[in-house]
Amino acid sequence: METLLKSDYYYDLPEELIAQDPLSDRSSSKLMLLDKNTGRVEHSIFKDIKSYLKEGDCLVLNNTKVIPARLIGHRKDTGAVIEVLLLKRLKDNTWETLVKPGKKARIGQEIVFGDGILKGTVKDIVEEGNRLIEFSFDGIFEEILDRLGEMPLPPYITHKLKDKNRYQTVYAKYEGSAAAPTAGLHFTDELLDEIRSMGVKVVFVTLHVGLGTFRPVKEDNILDHHMHTEWFRVTKETADVVNSVKENGGRIICVGTTSVRTVESAADENGKLRPCEGDTSIFIYPGYRFKLTDCLITNFHLPESTLIMLVSALAGRENVLNAYKEAVENRYRFFSFGDAMFIHD
Fold first, then answer.
1. Which of 63-77, 217-231, 325-339 has the lowest mean pLDDT?
2. What is the 8-class DSSP label of residue 63?
3. pLDDT for position 214
4. Residue 103's pLDDT band (boundaries 50, 70, 90)?
5. Residue among 142, 123, 148 nearest 134 (CA)
6. How far apart are CA 251 and CA 253, in angstroms?
7. Could you give the angle at the alpha carbon of 339 between the alpha carbons of 46 and 166, nearest 5°?
């Protein structure tokens, strides 16, 4: 059993390697290849991922769509600026939100957005200090959000995003995420068509990414970390394809940690994928036995994050940290708009 101290997942990252902007061509990022069994590292570019896939493999992609969940409003009573981040739709027009500054958002506080075309009232305060806000408006909420909202980029990205679509995958379909499943940002429609034409199956799951993804692990012992919950869905069509590929000896290649968390949450003890939907708070760290995931396409993750722990569970902590060290030496670009890694066998 590997060590479970948070500090064992730390690595040094020069700040200038944090990618602030997406590349003009999605598939032109660097691609590191990491053999999960030997730790061997090779270097390529993402559009050549085709060379490392083979007929009979199955790619699993997360087709969630990021909503422009960051709203800037004003307190109705004082006019003070309040930032509201939509995390999760609970019912009708009530959302769980993250509010800054939180102490100014007491129960009953009214917030006005965009000259009053959208209004919100704080109804309750829940765990982590999140606020439940009920919204009122005329028209269609999604259209108003599209007009008023901004993409909720992670805190380490300080540049303003010029094109909202660059924080969406080309196959984004179902709205509900507060963050993009970033490993998928490297794919273009053309590349996916080429992959399909090779005899690789391409299937979709849905997991709405919450901001808990970026929540730092505060506990020294990672077993004490409280994992956030996220809603997911696996359709019968996807389950049938994945199970058939597995039975025929093909590899299940998840695109992104969110796809891993989805298939591992929905798999039964025998490694069969079940069609289902619901909330998952699965926390994958070294010692975890994967039921379905063979390989993973992923970006480079924050030091001491739950995501680098998940990657370490698949490829081994030492292999991963050695690969990250090599990525820093080779000036790879890190995090959401950064370069990619293919963990293979």
1. 217-231
2. -
3. 67
4. confident
5. 123
6. 6
7. 90
Contact between residue 67 and residue 149 where contact means Cβ atoms under 8 Å apart: yes
Instruction: Give the separation between CA 187 and CA 169, rounded to whole angstroms.
Output: 7
User: CA-CA distance, 252 to 58, in Å (whole number)?
Assistant: 5
**Interatomic CA distance for residues 219 and 7, integer angstroms:** 10
CA–CA gap between residue 60 and residue 82 (Å, rounded):
38
Q: Which helix (H) or strand (E) holds 128?
A: none
Write the class of the CATH domain 70-148. Answer: mainly beta
DSSP string, 181-224: -GGGGG--HHHHHHHHHTT-EEEEEEE---GGGGPPP--SBGGG
Alpha carbons 345 and 253: distance in angstroms, whole number: 11
pLDDT value, residue 160: 87
- CATH 2.40.10.240 domain position(s) in the chain: 70-148
Q: Which helix (H) or strand (E) holds 322?
A: helix 317-329
Backbone angles phi, psi at 341, to 5 degrees: -130, 140
CATH fold of the domain at 6-66+164-344: QueA-like (3.40.1780)
- pLDDT tens column, 129-163: 899 999 999 999 999 999 999 988 888 899 988 88
Q: Which of 216, 321, 225, 296 is nearest to 2 (CA)?
A: 321
Whole-model pTM? Answer: 0.92
Q: Where is 146: in which H helix or E strand? A: helix 141-148
Question: What letter represents residue 316's amino acid?
Answer: G
Residue range(s) occupied by CATH 3.40.1780.10 in the chain? 6-66+164-344
pLDDT at 140: 93
Reference 129, options 107, 146, 160; nearest CA is: 107
Largest CA distance in the chain: 65
DSSP 315: H
Q: Is the pLDDT of residue 167 over 80?
A: yes
Write the CA distances from 301 to 37, 167, 237, 251, integer angstroms.
20, 17, 31, 24
206 contacts: CB under 8 Å, gap ≥ 6: 62, 63, 64, 173, 174, 176, 232, 233, 262
